[in-house]
Write a structure and sequence with these properties.
The complex is a heterodimer of chains A (785) and B (215).
Chain A (H helix, E strand, L loop, with lengths): L7 E6 L2 E6 L4 H7 L23 E5 L4 E5 L10 E3 L3 H16 L15 H9 L17 E2 L4 E3 L9 H10 L4 E4 L6 E4 L11 H6 L5 E3 L12 E6 L8 E7 L2 E7 L12 H5 L14 E4 L2 E4 L2 H19 L4 E5 L5 H15 L4 E2 L18 H6 L2 E5 L3 H4 L1 H12 L4 E6 L11 E4 L5 H10 L1 H8 L3 E5 L9 H13 L4 E4 L6 H7 L10 H9 L5 E5 L3 H4 L3 H10 L2 E6 L11 E4 L9 E3 L4 E4 L13 H11 L9 H11 L8 H6 L4 E2 L24 E6 L7 H4 L2 H4 L6 E4 L1 H6 L7 E5 L4 E8 L7 E5 L19 E6 L1
Helix pairs in contact in A: 2-3, 7-19, 8-15, 8-19, 8-20, 12-14, 16-18
Chain B lengths: L1 E5 L5 E3 L8 H6 L13 E5 L19 H6 L8 E6 L4 H15 L5 H18 L5 H14 L29 H15 L1 H7 L17
Parallel strand pairs in B: 1-4
Antiparallel strand pairs in B: 1-2, 3-4
Helix pairs in contact in B: 3-4, 3-6, 4-5, 4-6, 5-6, 6-7
Classes of the chains: A alpha/beta (785), B alpha+beta (215).
Chain lengths: 785, 215
């Protein structure tokens, strides 16, 4: 080879010279050059261990051919690699015969049969038959190692993939090898299940049928599955998935390795949340309110009723008296069509996709970081929620950056979370004092030196639902002032919130955001409130305001997949199609636009939101002219400046999606004014944040996930419990200026002194009663009862 | 220092001169082990720990010297010499060593974990008198999955065997796997007759009628 590229290494592969990359493993170099080396333990996203011995090849570095595990050794100049010699063939057959010796060979009843690397490689590289006549190993099986995952130790080939994943990738080292020799097995620790948010990944990467997931066990054979590539919209990370169905029912999500996004991983909520699509509780028809309550009706009647309500509202209070909240749960097309309907057809400026738990939309106009930008930044500043709870796969990527790539995390948080133990510096703050915390940190020479070392990325979001976004915005601006080159990744949570905001589901000048809309509704100034996949009664932090708003709005129209607490109050409920039932595109928090796969027929007569908007617009006298979702995608590209490059063709031909431009029309991030109240007799500052599993309708209606939500307790630092005269497990009254609730105390040393932490929206939660969404912070006191 | 165990007059730890002292000196020398117990005959000995291929009296005059021992088909290994006299049940002795290494396997890599256990199970069946002729070949086949290619063994004038020198190829990460195979291989290569003696000679029952199906 004549190349002088210092990054290329010339090696001989099966007699031909190839250019491998410096530092590349033999197994990857060979695969890139067309020689697939069989493997079980090797996984490209985890450190190699060389345990299964399936990838042994002969490598000659001048001492004659040596059997070498190709997953453990990197290419070196003039290496001669033979992946197909008689010796290699003999070894491969031997290893496979040994792997199958104690394997039960129950392929006909095994969920993995048909997509099993052991089965496939036994065919391609195995000896054809076994000479093992002894009795095979027997274990009790299957055993549940968590609520979601079952383990069959007889099928297990002990490749270390699941255990490595748990330890190395997820950071939940809850499964391990035990015993040794022929008795080696995978076990959990006594009384400690494999309760990881990422446990489903072990099922996907298991090279045999040893690990199976409860929601998929015995549901289908791989050859019966039909599949589409899609994007998970459970949160805004936008993990690429494969949606698989059989007999028109979604049965499984598998992660797809998208290099800039999820690396093949999914969180369990994203992986198993599809169950809600198949739920019996799904809305199958539109409904209208009669004297006898909500009754099913036809689409023409329902849409007619909506058009009437809209016309009545305009007549009664003008277009401004109509408001649309939500839209962050659908596709870009859904959001765009509804923005068009609201802004252009109805003429209201009051449209907003966030639910009072995000940051001002102007954050999306900042220099946007991609996930790769964050993971490769020298310093990662976290100023937002616990990513493990809210954006789990982003947590995996940042954890990897910190643990394996030595990136420095500076974390500002009101409560330590998943990334705290990997952070270079964790700066705890009391809600409201973010700016002071940031300023103090910036004054620290060590921090200043770290920030000057290289690229800085900021992950900004809302860490606390019991305060406004004011203090966080001020802190973000202070960091940006100190490091103007820093890029920002908005940690907004809902699936397509970034897409919805960017394609237009945001107020026009003079319009109200969701808090403003709900306040206006509570004050009787909203004639018609449209809930676009939004459930303020469960999802808006200020429960009292949400309740008064729903009651105060004269007419309520809900577009929903379920009858939620809020849509139950509506005058018309329009049945919407869910993810998996509709195509289109979605935008993740980076601005990356990817496709959604339409896999199954929509439930009942439900329709995608864009079609509903289009129908209503038609009845109001404006034809959008959309005949298919592709027309809407094209319309977005034509009419939304930052989506000009996001054509259906571009999205379809880019497996990792297309990055939309940073929108230029969101206006500047205006420094808000912060006015902190005095403490008075309220001793503790309240922190409320989300957990991965909560009482959200999509979780509640997924049978496998529903019971994983916890319950509402108030977490108090042990020293503060003493001060408050309470004890761990005691029921206390937790009161804010707004209201008081009875709640159980849980001692939690991670909670900062002077604050208390309560998870949001757990089953039976009443914490929203204490929150006043207009107050800069919420102070509470603990009283014994 | 070498540690001698087994059927000698005086087992123990002895200081030898590397490259000069021979195995004959060690086993028969009065300053060392003082010969085989009860005046018995030497049958075989392990020159360097349980993982080393076995020697027979042909190799007695080899000195303790790594390269020479390697060329003769074994190794000095841990310096633990095990001496077996003519009363030794060779298959049972091989089983003891193989069982030890199968149990020692950490279970990490496949050939050792599965191969070691498999060897132990076949061998224990043979020792129990329940083996077949095919089992003896199977032992070598399983061994070849751990150590493909030629495996070292000692020469034997009696059997007309040439020595196969060290080293061997292995599919395992470490030497525990090959160690489970070394005693089986040496015993079978040098004392196959003893294994055959333990094999039940099965005879086929002549089939006189078809076992069903269409006529």
């Amino acid at each position: 080879m004549t190349s002088t590229d210092p990054n290329l290494v010339s090696v001989t592969l099966n007699g031909r010279t190839i250019a491998a990359t410096k530092g590349e493993l033999i197994i990857t170099a060979a695969e890139r050059h067309g020689e697939y080396i069989p493997r079980f333990c090797y996984h490209e996203r985890m450190d190699p261990v060389g345990m299964c011995r399936m990838c042994l090849v002969e490598v000659d570095t001048g001492r004659g051919p040596q059997l070498t595990p190709s997953c453990m050794v990197t290419v070196a100049p003039d290496m001669k690699i033979d992946t197909a010699s008689p010796m290699v063939k003999q070894v491969q057959e031997g290893v496979l015969e040994l792997l199958l010796a104690n394997h039960p060979l129950d392929c006909p009843v095994c969920d993995k049969g048909g997509e099993c690397p052991l089965q496939d490689q036994a065919f391609s590289h195995g000896p054809g038959e076994s000479r093992f006549v002894e009795e095979k190993r027997h274990y009790e099986k299957p055993i549940a190692i968590s609520d979601l995952v079952y383990l069959d130790r007889e099928r297990c080939i002990l490749c270390d993939r699941c255990t490595r994943f748990a330890d190395e990738v997820a950071g939940d080292a809850l499964i391990e090898f035990s015993s040794r020799g022929g008795n080696t097995q995978i076990t959990t620790f006594p009384d400690e299940p494999f309760a990881s948010y990422f446990s489903g990944n072990t099922v996907q990467i298991c090279p045999v049928g040893a690990l199976t997931a409860k929601p998929y066990r015995f549901k289908a054979r791989p050859w019966d599955l039909e599949q589409n590539e899609s994007t998970c919209t459970t949160c805004s990370v936008g993990c690429r998935t494969i949606v698989q169905s059989s007999r028109d029912q979604v049965l499984r999500y598998q992660g797809v390795d998208s290099a800039p996004v999820n690396w093949g991983w999914l969180c369990d909520k994203g992986r198993f949340g599809f169950e809600s699509v198949n739920s019996d509780e799904r809305l199958t028809t539109p409904m209208v309110r009669t004297s006898g309550g909500l009754v099913p009706t036809s689409w023409s009647a329902a849409l007619g009723a909506v058009a009437d309500l809209v016309r009545e509202s305009i007549a009664a209070g003008g277009a401004d008296s109509i408001a649309v909240v939500g839209g962050a749960r659908g596709s870009n097309e859904d959001a765009f069509a509804w923005a068009q309907l609201a802004h252009d057809v109805i003429g209201t400026p009051n449209v907003y996709a966030q639910m009072g738990d995000g940051l001002p939309a102007a954050v999306l106009g900042l220099d946007r970081a991609t996930i790769d930008d964050v993971a490769s930044a020298t310093t990662i500043v976290l100023l937002g929620p616990d990513l493990k709870e809210e954006l789990p796969v982003l947590y995996l990527r940042i954890r990897d950056a910190a643990v394996k790539r030595g990136r420095h995390i500076i974390e500002f948080t009101p409560k330590p979370g998943g990334l705290t133990k990997h952070a270079w510096k964790t700066i705890g703050y009391e809600p409201g004092t973010q700016l002071a915390a940031v300023e103090a940190a910036l004054a620290d020479p060590a921090v200043a030196m770290q920030l000057a070392k290289g690229p800085v990325a900021i992950v900004a979001g809302r860490a606390n639902l019991a305060e406004t976004s004011t203090a966080t915005v001020l802190a973000l601006q202070a960091i940006l002032a100190a490091v103007p080159s820093a890029k920002v990744l908005p940690a907004l949570r809902r699936g397509n919130v970034v897409g919805a905001l960017q394609v237009g589901v945001r107020p026009r000048p003079g319009g109200l955001d969701t808090t403003g809309v709900l306040q206006a509704a509570a004050a009787g100034r909203i004639e018609c409130l449209v809930l676009l996949g939004a459930d303020p009664l469960a999802d808006f932090p200020d429960a009292d305001l949400a309740r008064r708003a729903i009651a105060g709005a004269r007419r309520v129209i809900a577009v929903d997949t379920f009858l939620s607490a809020s849509s139950l109050q509506a005058d018309v409920v329009l049945a919407a199609s869910a993810v998996g039932e509709k195509g289109g595109t979605t935008t993740n928090l980076e601005g990356r636009v990817t496709s959604l796969g339409r896999r199954v027929t929509a439930t009942g007569t439900s329709r995608p939101d864009w079609m509903i908007a289009s129908g209503i617009a038609g009845l109001l006298g404006t034809e959008f002219g959309y005949r298919s979702i592709a027309d809407v995608t094209a319309s977005i590209a034509a009419r939304v400046e930052s989506y000009a490059n996001v054509t259906a063709t571009a999205v379809a031909s880019a497996p990792d999606g297309v990055l939309a431009a940073v929108p230029a029309d969101l206006g500047p991030l205006v420094p808000p004014v912060l006015s902190l109240p005095d403490r008075n007799s309220y001793d503790f500052r309240l922190v409320v944040s989300r957990r991965l599993y909560d009482d959200a309708v999509s979780t509640r209606t997924s049978p496998s996930l529903a019971h994983l939500a916890g319950c509402m307790t108030v977490h108090v630092n042990p020293l503060d419990i003493e001060r408050a005269g309470a004890h761990d497990g005691a029921e206390v009254r937790l009161s804010s200026a707004r209201a008081g609730i009875i709640v159980t105390v849980e001692s939690d040393a991670t909670v900062l002194r002077g604050t208390v932490w309560v998870p949001f929206n757990q089953p039976g939660s009443t914490i929203g009663e204490l929150i006043d969404c207009t107050a800069a912070v919420t102070d509470v006191r603990i009283e014994n009862i | 220092m070498v540690a001698v165990s087994g059927h000698v007059q005086r087992p123990g730890v002895y200081e030898i001169v590397n490259g000069t002292t021979t195995f004959r000196d060690l086993i028969y020398g009065q300053e060392f082990c003082g010969g085989i117990r009860n005046g018995n005959q030497l049958k075989a000995f392990v020159p360097g720990g349980g993982s080393a291929p076995w020697f027979v009296p042909d190799q007695l005059d080899l000195p303790f010297e790594g390269r020479l021992v390697g060329a003769a088909g074994s190794m000095l290994g841990s310096g633990a010499v095990m001496v077996m006299d003519h009363t030794t049940d060779i298959p049972a002795a091989a089983l003891t060593l193989t069982r030890f290494y199968a149990h020692e396997s950490c279970g990490k890599c496949v050939p050792c974990r599965e191969g070691g256990t498999w060897l132990e199970r076949i061998l224990s069946r043979v020792v129990d008198g329940k083996g077949t002729e095919a089992d003896l070949d199977q032992l070598l086949e399983v061994g070849a999955m751990i150590c493909p290619g030629a495996f070292p063994h000692a020469s034997s004038e009696e059997l007309g065997l040439e020595a196969v020198p060290f080293p061997y190829k292995m599919t395992t990460i470490c030497f525990v796997g090959p160690s489970a195979y070394a005693p089986v291989h040496s015993a079978l290569t040098l004392f196959r007759a003893e294994f055959e003696a333990k094999i039940v000679k099965r005879t086929m029952i002549p089939v006189t009628a078809m076992a069903g199906g269409e006529q």
